[in-house]
Amino acid sequence: MIRTNYSGSKCPKCQQSAFEMVEETPNNSNFILHFIRCTSCKTTVGVLEYFNIGDLVKRLMKKVDS
Description:
66 residues, alpha+beta, 3 strands, 27% strand
């Protein structure tokens, strides 16, 4: 899915404004991460945890309340 970059964010390396999220496991790691990177030059501009911790906590809270 292609989304419009309304924020005007640009890659610090090549100044393009299209980004993608890719799932990777870094070497010597047991964790999956999501890397936000430029679609043109593949420079990483951000990293997110694989799991959405906020969503997991919400679901756990609902189970505890039940």
